[in-house]
Amino acid sequence: MHFRFLRVGVSVGLCSLITLFLIAPLISLLAAPVSPEITLSTDQNYDLQVVAGQTVRWHNTSTSPHRLRAIDNSWATPLIQPGETVTQTFTMPGQSLFVCDIDPTIRGVVTVQSGNTIFVPLVVGRTVERWSQPGTWGGSLPQAGAAVTIPAGKVVLLDTSPPPLQSLLIEGELIFDRRDLDLTVGWIMLHGNGRLRIGSPSEPFTHRATITLNASDPNEDVMGMGTRGILLMGGTFEAYGLIPNRVWTTLNDHAAAGATNLTLRDTVDWQSGDQIVIAPTDYYGVAETERLTVQAVSGSHVTLAMPLTRARWGRLQYVSPTSLTETPTTAVTPLVLDERAEVGLLSRRIVIQGADDTLWRDQRFGAHIMVMDHAVLRLDGVELRRVGQGGRLGRYPIHFHMISYTEDGRFIGDSPAQLVANSSIWNSANRCITIHSTNGTTIRNNVCYDIAGHAIFLEDAVERRNVIEGNLVLRVRQPPQPLLPSDRSSFRRGPSGFWLTNPDNVVRGNVAADTAGNGFWLAFPERSLGPSKRVPMRPNVIPLGIFSHNVAHSNSKPGINIDFAPVDDEGNTAERKYTPTNDGEPYRVSNGVRFTLSDITTYKNNDNGLWNRVSLPDYVRFVAADNAGMFFAGAGDNGKIYDSLIVGESLNNHNVPVSLFTNQPNAAIASYHSTFDIFDNVIVNFPLHPRPDRASGAFATNDYYTRPVDRGLVRNPNNRLINAHPGRRVISPNIHTPTGNATLAGALWDPHGYWGPAGNYWVYDIPFLTAGQECGAVEPVGQNGRSCRGPYYGVAGFRIDNSDLYKPLMPLTITRLDADNQPIGQWVVEEGFSGMRNTFAIMQWMRHFATVSGGRYLVEFRDGSTSLPPPTHELRLLLSNMHTTSDQIILGVPFSSGSGVVAYLTTRELYQNAEAGAPERRDLMPVNSFAAMLATDNSMWHDQANQRVWINVRGGVPIFGDELADPLSDASLYRETNVRIYRP
Q1: Binning pLDDT at 50, 70 and 90, where does residue 5 land?
Q2: Integer Cα distance of 509 and 473 in angstroms
Q3: Cα 737 vs. chain centroid, distance in angstroms?
Q4: Could you tell me the pTM of the whole model?
Q5: Which of 762, 768, 833, 767 is nearest to 795 (CA)?
Q6: Quick check: 115 pLDDT over 60?
Q7: Which helix (H) or strand (E) holds 27?
C-alpha cells in the first residue's frame, strides 16, 4: 500500500500571524548578522560556518602572537598580539583552510555560505504533522510492508516507531522527534528537495535513533542507486548525534594480555555497554585490533567486560644521550616516540545499520548511503554498522558520487556542505568512505574499523580540496571479491587505510593501522580515471596539499607508499613517479615544485616505514621506529630528510615482524644515490647486521651505483647516532660474487667522519683500492672496508664508437699496475648484453671504477667469456673528482691501430662540440713513447702494436659556462670531465 500526504489547508489569517511572528526576528538577524568572536589558543582545530558578508572577530588569549593565513592565500590576518582582537570579513562563498604561521597547531576551515546559512532549523509557514496521527495519512497509519511517500511541501514528525516498511520516498521532510525511535525500512530515497533530519548542530539528538535497512532483493535497483540504502538523489540528510568528548584517544599506560582495565590519555564520557576498539602495537600478523565492551568508566580509566587477548604498549618513549627511556627528556631531541595504542569508540546514539539477516551473513549485503546530484549529507556523531555490499561497485557505507564533475568532464563546483564527522563506520563489506569525483568534503574525526578493501577511498583521481582529518582506521582486510587489483595483497600493494589518488587534499592527523596493505597509499596517476576520465587533469603533477601529523603502524606493507599508481581504468598499478609542477605540465627541472610530508609517525610496519618514487620531497620531523627493512627507501631525487627521529628498535621490542622482507636487516635511510640531503636527524639503535650482502646500520649503501666515487655524503651533516653503526659497506656485485655485471661505487667520500677520519674515503678492502694508500680499519675490523685518505677519482661513461651514450654494456677488466707495470689488483664487471645478472638487480649499465691519485690503470673490454674489439673511430670516458692540476691518473685504453688519433679533455657536456682553443677544452699532447707519456703531463701515446692509447691526465679543466655557485651541487662536487679519443 502507498501512502501520501493529504494537502490540508490552513486559514489565511492564522498563516499570516504565524509567518509574521516567526519571520520578523529572522529578518532582523539576516539584516545584521552576528560577528562571532573566536578565541585562539594552541592545539585547536576550528570549523567555522559563516554567511557571505559576515565578520569574524579573532581574539588572541595566548602569550605569543598569531597570524592566520588561508592555505590558498585568499586571505590573511595581520599579526594578532597577545590580548588583541582583529576582524576579518568574508565576502566570497566557498571553503578555505587556514593555519597559523606562528603556531601550526592552530588551524581550521572557514565555510562561507551564499546569502543565508544552508541549514535553517525552522520551516516557516509549514504545518508539521505527526506520524502517529491517522489524519497525517488520510485516516489510517502505514502498516507493515507499506511503501510510504512524503510529498514535496509536507513535513512529518516521526514521533513513533512504525512497523517495518517496504520503502520510504521523501520529497518533503521527515524529522525525528526527541525520543527513542526505530525506523526499519527496505530503502529510503530523498528526491528533489527532500529532507531527513535527526537532531541539529545546536541541539544534538540525545535519545536513541536506529535506522535499519532490510531490503530483501539484492538485485533491486532504485533509480540506479541499488537498494538497502539511504539514497540521496538530491535533498539533504542531516543527523547530529550526541558527540562523545573523545571519539578516540590512546592508552597512557601499558595494558598486559588478560588485562581488564585500561588507562587512557584523556578523560572520557563513554558509557557502560559501549563498544570500543583498541589498535595493536605490534607487527601485522603478530597482533590485531580487538573489539571490546565497556563495563565501567571513571575519568580516564575504563573497565572492560572481557580481558584483552594481546598486550598493548601504552607509554611515551624519549631519547637520552645513551638510548631510549620512558623518563621525559628533551636533552637530545624534542621529538617523542609515541607507540601508545589507539582506543576508539564505536557506539553512538544514532545508528544506521543493515539488517542482520542471511543476505548479510551469507552475501555480505549491508546498508549503504549514496549521495549524488545536488544532494547534501551531514553526519555528525552517527554509527554505521553492517554496511557496504561486498563485490558491488558503488555500494559503499558512505559514497559521495560525482557531485563536482559531469561525465563529459565539466567542472560543476566544490561541495563544501558535505560532512562526515565524529562518527563510526564498522563491519563493512566494501570500504569505509568513498569520495568519487567530488571536491570539498569534510571527513573528520571518524573511526573506521573492520573494513574490506581500501577504507577511505578517492576513486577517480580528480577529487580535490577535501579535508580528511583526525580519522582512525583499523583492521582493513582483503575482500573476498576485490573490486580493484590494488585491493589484493601483493608486493607493496593491498587493501590500505587511505587510498589517495589526487594530491590536492588536506590529509592530516589520521591513523592507519592493522591493514593488509599500506597505511597511506599515495597513488597519483598520470591522468584521471574511470567515469571521470574526461576531466582534463594530470594528478601526478598537481602540487601536494597538506599531508602532516599522520600515523601509520602495524601494517603489512609500507606505512606510507608514494608509488604504484593506477595505469588504467581497471585499476592495475605500476611504478609511477610523483613529480609536482607549478604549471600542470609534465615535469621538467624548471617547473618542479617542492612538497612536504611533515610530523609523520611510522612504526611496526612489516615493510618500509616510507616507500617513495618522487622528485623534490621534504620529509620533516618524521618519527620512525621498529619498521622492517629500510625505514626510508625507494627511488627519488632532490629530496631532503631532516629534523627526524629514527629508531631501529624501541623499548616496545617483544616480537619480530611476520614479513616477506626479514632477509633485509634494519637500515635507517637508503642513500637514494646521494640525491637526498639527510641532515639534523637523530638515529638510535641500528646495530650492524653480520650479513655482508645486505645494508644495515644508519645509512644503507647498497644503491651507490650511479657513480664510481660518490661525494654526496657531504650533504648529510649533523646526524647524531646513538647506539647506531653508521652502516655496512655492502659488497659490490662484481667483488667475490658468482655473477657481477654491475658495480657499486668503489669509494665513498666521508667528509663528516661517520666511518673514519673526516675527509677520508670509505673503500672496499681490496688491493685495487688500498695498495699504497694511507688507510685505517672500519669497525668491525676486516669486515667493513677501510677508511683511506685519498683522494679517489672516478672513471665511467664508456662509449665505444657509436654505442649508447647512457647505457654502456661492454665487459670491463681494469688492472691496476705498479711502477713496473706489474698487476696490483683487478676490477672486473661482466658484460651486460645478456641482461641483468647481479646480486642486487642493479641496472647492468652501471659499470665504472675508482682510481687512486697517481695510479696507473689498464682498461680492457673483456671479461672471462666475452671480448670486444678495440674502438676504431672514437672512445669516450668520463672522469670525476679531478678538481685541480694536482689530481692525476694514467690510463691505457683499447684503440685500433692507424694514424691520426687525437685526444682532449673537456668539461662541456656536449663533448663533441668542444672547439680547439676553448677554455673548457684541454688537448693532450701526442708523444712517441710510453716513457714520454709518463714524463709529460696531459699527454697521449698511441701504442699501435698493442692497439692501445695511453693518456696521462691532470684535473682542473675550467668549467664550461659560468663558474659554479653552489659548492654542494653535483656539478661542483664531481667536476665531471670528458675524455675524447678519436680519429677526426
Answers
A1: very low
A2: 12
A3: 37
A4: 0.87
A5: 768
A6: no
A7: helix 12-31
The DSSP code for 312 is: B
3-state SS assignment for residue 379: strand
Tell me the β-bridge partners of 243: none
**What is residue 389's DSSP assignment?**
B
What is the chain's Cα-based Rg?
Answer: 34
For 340-375, the pLDDT digits (tens) are 999 999 999 999 999 999 999 999 999 999 999 999
Cα–Cα dist 383/350, whole Å: 6
The helix/strand/coil state of 17 is helix
Cell of residue 337, nine digits? 616516540
Question: Of the candidates 176, 241, 234, which has an alpha carbon nearest to the alpha carbon of residue 206?
Answer: 241
* Start-to-end C-alpha separation, the chain: 97
According to DSSP, residue 134 is labeled: G
- What CA dihedral angle connects 768, 772, 774 and 776, to 10 degrees? 50
pLDDT bin (cut points 50, 70, 90) of residue 94 is confident
Of 4-13, 16-25, 427-436, give the range with the top mean pLDDT: 427-436
Contacts of 899 (CB under 8 A, 6+ apart): none
648: closest CA among 718, 599, 697, 703? Answer: 697
Residue 915 cell numbers, joined = 672547439
**Which of the four pLDDT bands, split at 50, 70 and 90, describes residue 662?**
low
SS3 string of 745-805? CCEEEECCCCCCCCCEEEECCCHHHHCCCCEEECCCCCCCCEEECCCEEEEEEEEECCCCC
Amino acid at the residue 568: D
For residues 172 and 151, what is the distance between their CA atoms, to the nearest angstrom? 5
CA 56 to chain centre: 35
287 φ/ψ angles, rounded to the nearest 5 degrees: -145, 160
Answer whether residue 739 shows pLDDT above 90.
Answer: no
Tell me the residue ranges of DSSP E strands in 241-328. 248-250, 261-263, 275-278, 290-298, 301-304, 316-319, 324-325
Distance CA(280)–CA(556), nearest Å, equals 13
In the predicted model, what is the mean pLDDT of residues 23-42?
58
- Give the model's confidence band at 663: pLDDT under 50 very low, under 70 low, under 90 confident, else very high: low
